Amino acid sequence: MTKSVKEKPIVWTISGSDCSGGAGIAADIKTGHALGVEVCHLITANTVQNANRLVSINPVASEILQQQAKVLIDDKPPSVIKIGLIANLEQVKWLSELLAGFKAKYSKIIVVFDPVGQASVGGSFSALQREDLTLLFHYVDVITPNLMEAQQLSNLSTLNPVELATKIAELGIASVIVKGGHSNVLDHDGLPVSGDYCLHRVEQSSISYQLSSPRINTSYSHGGGCSFASALAAFLAQGYLLRDAFTLTKAFINQGLAKSVTTSMNKPDYYGAFEQTYWPDKADFFPRISSNLAEKHQGLPPFPSLALTDKKLGLYPVVDSLYWLKRILPLGLDIIQLRLKNKTDSELEQLIIAAIAISQPYKTRLFINDYWQLAIKHRAYGVHIGQEDLQDADLTKIQQSGLRLGISTHGCYEFLLAQQLQPSYLAIGAIFSTKTKNMSGQIQGVENLQHLLKLASNIPVVAIGGINHQRAERVWQTGVDSIAVVTAVTESENAEIAVKQFQHLMQ
Ligand SMILES: Cc1ncc(COP(=O)(O)OP(=O)(O)O)c(N)n1
Ligand SMILES: Cc1ncsc1CCOP(=O)(O)O
Ligand SMILES: [Mg+2]
């Protein structure tokens, strides 16, 4: 193999084999391959089952699993370990020791645990109780029970995912995703929804959100739970944050379930295997996001559009002074932003008043970054708000003042959530690394930008972060509506020429 071949991230799955090929290891391998990761498999049990019944489990000896882990760790170290069926106490002990060692040595390994208890065709996969797994929970980063498994793990009989996840988190697991595929929840129109709830502890605080989609009626869902956890593992292995990995996973599962709806209608009593598809890219399969922010602004009308009359927004310079505004405004651009940092309150107000006055004679739309109250007070054209300020900004007030709104997003979760707020434009960044702002852990890349553009409704999308003339062409080819730049203009040898070159490219 040549060096130029991109190495795939490695996921280990430590799960049972389902001889019918639908669930367990088979689901994990099919899912991993569909989503671009390499899968190493340590088989905990060789089960005998088909679409109708579970016949036997047949655990594999822990020594064999240990030997497999030993030969794999140097050769194919995992980014993520996905755990499924654990067949007995001996395996719990072995796995806890293995993970304790790995976590001490390779702090970045993420452990996803899908607690397989009941077989969906009836019967139990192991006699293990919650107490038996206590040791293991210390090393689990994300656990993905369905409602029944969540009830067992929490010792609660409720179907409320919030209560279930809260109780499970007390076991010492940072992130709990309770899958709601088996719930009977209906939406406002009385249609069944499948809502998956995530409770995610970050340092001392926790965040939570629910991803909901219309329920997809199919009897081809055997291995859906395993595929959910292995898709999550695959996305995490590729560096996605949990919220994005979860969102992509939900879309992947919806996409797979939808694939078999027609087949299932022709054979409704058959319990078929979940069908793995490919990277989720259809907006319809992505979930609706319920979070505090979404709830707070439910029913808010759309923000005014940029009224672009069938043309793209083009170059979007982001500048930090009146000097730059005066220099760039005469260059015939459709949009510009004043991004002030480290100014006193009185400086800010004076600068914003002056900026609005200077921009008046031009057709260029002036957005004020961050300072939405001053932007409203002095009637700017629009305001740009980042994720940090979005929680506290009074979007109703901005909306009622008639200002346009731009929102920064970093990944599909924030993109979908911000899109629900119907702003005037959405920004995605940072596309490349940039020295202008600390964006570590949030670099999107052009490929991810392409994926995100497929989720966009008719709201213009702006790409930002590390974009220079050399990189602009690749970014523009994605079909994005605008490219925002700071240093490619303000640190160029000649700003007028730099702007012209970008304009030429984006014609
Ligand atoms: C067009 C555009 N996109 C993104 C940003 C970044 O905004 P934010 O996340 O609020 O970060 P700061 O600019 O405030 O550091 C932007 N300003 N413009
Ligand atoms: C403000 C901001 N938001 C995301 S990246 C970025 C900085 C863009 O600056 P540059 O174009 O110099 O990389
Ligand atoms: Mg900001």
From TrEMBL:
Keyword terms: ATP-binding, Kinase, Magnesium, Metal-binding, Multifunctional enzyme, Nucleotide-binding, Thiamine biosynthesis, Transferase
Gene Ontology MF terms: ATP binding; hydroxymethylpyrimidine kinase activity; magnesium ion binding; phosphomethylpyrimidine kinase activity; thiamine-phosphate diphosphorylase activity
Catalytic activity entry: 4-methyl-5-(2-phosphooxyethyl)-thiazole + 4-amino-2-methyl-5-(diphosphooxymethyl)pyrimidine + H(+) = thiamine phosphate + diphosphate; 2-(2-carboxy-4-methylthiazol-5-yl)ethyl phosphate + 4-amino-2-methyl-5-(diphosphooxymethyl)pyrimidine + 2 H(+) = thiamine phosphate + CO2 + diphosphate; 2-[(2R,5Z)-2-carboxy-4-methylthiazol-5(2H)-ylidene]ethyl phosphate + 4-amino-2-methyl-5-(diphosphooxymethyl)pyrimidine + 2 H(+) = thiamine phosphate + CO2 + diphosphate
Pfam families xref list: Phos_pyr_kin, TMP-TENI
Domain of life: Bacteria
InterPro entries, A to Z: Aldolase_TIM (IPR013785), HMP/HMP-P_kinase_dom (IPR004399), PM/HMP-P_kinase-1 (IPR013749), Ribokinase-like (IPR029056), ThiamineP_synth_sf (IPR036206), ThiamineP_synth_TenI (IPR022998), TMP_synthase (IPR034291)
Chain ranges of the Pyridoxamine kinase/Phosphomethylpyrimidine kinase domain: 18-263
EC number(s) recorded for this UniProt protein: 2.5.1.3
Boundaries of every Thiamine phosphate synthase/TenI domain copy: 320-489
GO CC annotation terms, alphabetical: cytosol
Record bears the keyword Isomerase: no
Cofactor section: Mg(2+)
Keyword Mitochondrion appears in the UniProt entry: no
Co-factor note (free text): Binds 1 Mg(2+) ion per subunit.
NCBIfam families: PRK03512.1 (NF002904), thiE (TIGR00693)
UniProt record similarity statement: Belongs to the thiamine-phosphate synthase family.
Entry protein name: Thiamine-phosphate synthase
Gene expressing this chain: thiE
